[in-house]
Amino acid sequence: MQFEFSEEDVSFRKSARRWLLENVPTETPPHSGIEAREFALAWLRKRHAGGWSGISWPAEFGGRGLSFERQIIWHEEYVRSGAPTPLDSTFVALNHAGPTVMECGTEEQKTFHLPRILSGNSIWCQGFSEPGAGSDLAGIRTSGRIDGEDLVVNGQKIWTSFADIADYQELLIRTDPGSQRHKGLSWVICDMTLPGITVRPIKNLAGATHFAEVFYDNVRIPLSNVVGALHDGWNVAMTTLGFERRTAAITLQLMMEQKIESLATLFLSRGGDAACSSIGRDIAIARAEAAALRALTYRTLFKDPATAFDGSIVRLFFAELSQRIYGIAMEVLGPRNAEAEQDQEWVYSYLEAFSETIAGGTAEIQRNIIGERILGLPRGGAR
Ligand SMILES: Cc1cc2nc3c(=O)[nH]c(=O)nc-3n(C[C@H](O)[C@H](O)[C@H](O)COP(=O)(O)OP(=O)(O)OC[C@H]3O[C@@H](n4cnc5c(N)ncnc54)[C@H](O)[C@@H]3O)c2cc1C
């Protein structure tokens, strides 16, 4: 898919490139903890102060109200500049919690939260998965009992990325006590500082602690924090997952092309033969697939939301390509080199990439969605 860019777009691109050249942080971002929070917020605040936060968000919420084309130009320039990965602790807020509040929230919720998100003043996390309710999201058991003007929340979430450093959570709970499956759920804004919340961080395979278990013990959340209608949380959650699977990872997908170029450089610098080796061929295939992924992503971006299931194709393709790229990197490095200090970011990314086919819906679940919702095969699985 090709975009037609106007003269104004071209001059927008130039000013984005100039600003990024002067302002991109040069330090390596911390992987987790409070340092990761401070780094991500400081970088977002800087973008906001420079007018580069929320390019396509409405001006009334602190954005610039510009077109999707401009948003894409920004993403492209962001990647070209070598800026830090956007998969940081501001990711949930900017890419799916904020957009969900914008689409389904009350005026009060929008006015309070959206400017705070864009200006780098709040970190959000996503409290959907539970032990026993991951792929089968409709199996959620964490409950919210209505008591006066509040919901009293009890239960547990798991795998909540950035829960240890978040201010707010998009929390999916069962609010209609007799309800089953997709019915009777609510999507609620949970203030992570409320009494009764305990966060227990979990260390991952790569040694980082960027997700956690979250426990709720009689946590009182005002009913005014429900986003969308009470008991209609499933539909709101599907809006969130639509953003998460469709548009949230554009920059990450564009970054993949850059990673492949770095991999090609690494391969050649270690004496690799680009023309006559299986690794050279694998890198060339990955390069072509990354270009295809970009085209697929752009095509999906401009589709009617009714066809949002296409996001599952993009998500799955991205996840599997990502794992393949870091697998090739390990082959290039070989077992001994992989221990060298200068190669540790490749090793870290390789270990992190295992989670790509789990987070945001596993590869099997994405395949179920593609089979059932796009290809029209008989229904079978969950989520
Ligand atoms: C890095 C990372 C970050 C995450 N961040 C968050 C977060 O911030 N917030 C949040 O809420 N969750 C988060 N998650 C959780 C993630 O959404 C779940 O792990 C995922 O949905 C899978 O659920 P599960 O772990 O319960 O596995 P299960 O659902 O128990 O699945 C186990 C296996 O069974 C397969 N399976 C299950 N059902 C089917 C089916 N119907 N058909 C075919 N195969 C099936 C799965 O594909 C998988 O291989 C994160 C996970 C990771 C890895």
Automatic annotation (TrEMBL):
All residue ranges annotated as the Acyl-CoA dehydrogenase/oxidase N-terminal domain in the record: 6-120
Ranges for domain Acyl-CoA dehydrogenase/oxidase C-terminal: 232-375
Protein family according to the UniProt entry: Belongs to the acyl-CoA dehydrogenase family.
Cofactor(s) for this UniProt protein: FAD
Keyword Manganese attributed: no
Residue span(s) of domain Acyl-CoA oxidase/dehydrogenase middle: 125-219
Organism: Mesorhizobium zhangyense
Pfam family, one: Acyl-CoA_dh_1
Name by which UniProt lists this protein: Acyl-CoA dehydrogenase
Single Gene Ontology MF annotation: flavin adenine dinucleotide binding
Gene Ontology CC terms: plasma membrane
Superkingdom of the source species: Bacteria
Keywords: FAD, Flavoprotein, Oxidoreductase
Keyword Oxidoreductase: yes
